[in-house]
Write a structure and sequence with these properties.
The structure holds 2 protein chains of 2 kinds.
Chain A: E1 4-7, E2 10-13, E3 19-25, E4 31-37, E5 43-49, E6 56-57, E7 64-68, E8 74-78, E9 87-94, E10 104-105, E11 109-113
Parallel strand pairs in A: 2-11
Antiparallel strand pairs in A: 1-3, 3-8, 4-5, 4-9, 5-6, 7-8, 9-10, 9-11
Chain B: E1 4-6, E2 10-14, E3 19-21, E4 23-25, E5 31-38, E6 45-50, E7 56-58, E8 64-68, E9 73-78, E10 87-95, E11 102-104, E12 108-113
Classes of the chains: A mainly beta, B mainly beta.
Chain lengths: ~110, ~110
Amino acid sequence: NAGVTQTPKFQVLKTGQSMTLQCAQDMNHNSMYWYRQDPGMGLRLIYYSASEGTTDKGEVPNGYNVSRLNKREFSLRLESAAPSQTSVYFCASGIELTAREPQHFGDGTRLSIL
Amino acid sequence: AQSVSQHNHHVILSEAASLELGCNYSYGGTVNLFWYVQYPGQHLQLLLKYFSGDPLVKGIKGFEAEFIKSKFSFNLRKPSVQWSDTAEYFCAVNARAAGNKLTFGGGTRVLVKP
């Protein structure tokens, strides 16, 4: 059972470079999420997708874009990386946005911007 | 701003000691409450959840949490911790008032000394 798979696991970028973080889930979930985790701040929602074909901003969307490619895949793009985007990024999926069931998380991507 | 607060950022205790981690939220109305745990180098895993019914919920690994509606609290407890409980613990709230998106507290790092 793969669950939620994120790639890459680690990445170092220079300021101004771009990259895309990939996320795929095999649980037939409708909703998918991108969070960033910073010390003392818990996880903060960047963007989410309630269903295939829809995306919405979360708490901290600036500097990011997302694509819900299909039901399984939800990518996060940094167009011009900044040191403030150094963080650990987690993708998650859930049955439905309004569901009571918990979200399932990937293993995270540790991203450093120099 | 509506939020989820975890009172302790760091907790250090010895094996067999009791653990209680505080969590308060500020959302009114219907809420679904979760505690997640993140072991070193791993992704978030669900410890327990509360939707309705008995306000004392039991989770995995001997953890339990009590929902006190009048205090907007959902504190996590374990009577006797083990070294393997060393981890970061996150309280999270899914509230209709927040658009059904999951909001995390800042996390509490727990170190259990053998």
